[in-house]
Amino acid sequence: MDWDDLRIFLAVARADSLSGAGRRLGIDASTVGRRIARLEAGLGAKLFVKTPQGYALAPEGERLLPHAETAEQALSVAAEALSGPGDLSGQLRIGAPDGCANYLLPQVCARLCEAHPGLELQIVALPRMFSLSRREADMAIAVSQPQAGRLVVQRLTDYRLHLAGHDDYLAAHPPIRDRSDLRAHRMIGYIPDMIFDRELDYMTETGVDFAQLTSNSVSVQMQAIRAGAGLGIVHDFAIPFHPGVRRLLTDQVSLTRSFWLVRYADDRRSQRMNRLADALGQGIRAEVARLETQLATLEASAERRT
After folding, report:
1. GO molecular function terms here (predicted)?
2. Mind listing the domains of the chain with CATH numbers?
3. Is 136 within 8 Å of 128 (Cβ atoms)?
């Protein structure tokens, strides 16, 4: 058994298909299939079971998986030992909910790329949980702390959310003095059955039963608010990107949530991954603080003008 066979085995196990593994590896699906068949013949064991959904691990494959992952990690650590500390380099895929991916990670990653020219960063913005065991991402940012799996979880920072609306909408609709007034307004929020984390269930904070305009994307919700479609709960750090959007009822509707950095447990042995995690965490903390401070400055300036 050689490492190249194990590399292909891991790709199929993570992609659940020959074609998906081939795309990750840069080879065609038929080659992947032949290599898996050769590995199974050499081991005298069936590693995968073909299902309507793709390729699932057979019991023998389940037993092989942790050993293959250990070999992968050992090779990575060995490569780091030979290359030395130096600048951070190579590819890193970061999974994040789209609010973080749209409003924080572009600036954070830009600074990381500037500091480390050999670094290739990929931002995967998806409104759902990421599977690190399947290597959908090397690290993931979550809005709640995972409770299961072989993971390392680090709390990054708190962030704040408030009710907000655009000046054009507010000028054309009844005034908002307290939460009871919200029932006369159109609300924007998440599609209820697509809320993938309980920490994203904001609507109860408003006292309104439901939202008339909904999306599973934070960015779509914010664009709807900016277009004057209604009111919604938004991240404070997103507001500076949208002139005309302002916070409302800040003393009555105020939420605090946290970002968590989630990593695969075995990556703790990698100094490169540890350094990347530290740099990413510091960058996100600094960017949340910068944008929330900018929002406070903008609001103070607007207050002085009125």
Report:
1. DNA binding; DNA-binding transcription factor activity
2. 3-83 (1.10.10.10), 88-306 (3.40.190.290)
3. no
